[in-house]
From TrEMBL:
GO terms for molecular function: cytokine activity; cytokine receptor binding. Residues 1-30 form the signal peptide. GO terms for biological process: defense response to virus; immune response. Keywords: Antiviral defense, Cytokine, Disulfide bond, Secreted, Signal. The lineage of its organism: Eukaryota, Metazoa, Chordata, Craniata, Vertebrata. It is found in: Secreted. One of its GO terms (cellular component) is extracellular space. Belongs to the alpha/beta interferon family. InterPro entries: 4_helix_cytokine-like_core (IPR009079), Interferon_alpha/beta/delta (IPR000471). This is Interferon alpha.
Amino acid sequence: MAVPASPQHRLRCGAPALLLLLTALATSLACHHRPERDATFPWRSLQLLQDMAHSPTPPCHYQQAPLFPHTLLHITHPQQADAAALRILQHLFHTLSSPSTPQHWHNEARQQLLNSLQHRIQHLQHCLPDNATLFPGQGPRNPLLTINKYFRNIQDFLRTHNHSACAWDHVRLEARLCFQRLHNLTRTVRH
């Protein structure tokens, strides 16, 4: 006849499973209940972008910088919208953290923006499943491929114009549009 396990033994054996369950539940709740500062993230980012370049660059007549792909605004699934937002934020972080940014940009505002981007990126990475499950297609309709192409075109635009202050100003204005579109994308999908 088997001796029943003591309550302490059952607690020790069940504690790791309970801890994993509680961690998963807390993570899920943290991802679905967004802090109030998430609502202000795009607008604070817009202000920081403005603060980065108080003085306008001299007018230049470069070709138009790449335009934000409007097809991304047609995403209707919340997790897909978050995955697209994550990819956009990662590219923005990479672009704006470049050592070739203009010397006249205010570094403090730029650092605050980069810190804010990094925080938001980490939050989204923590909350999202693997992107491959969100966007299984590899064709032209895959939003992540569209985002990658858009930012590749931005990098090409900067290289073509030798990372000039004027080219960077075009990119900064395009980043402004990205934050506005991100706000619309993630807000519209949730309502």
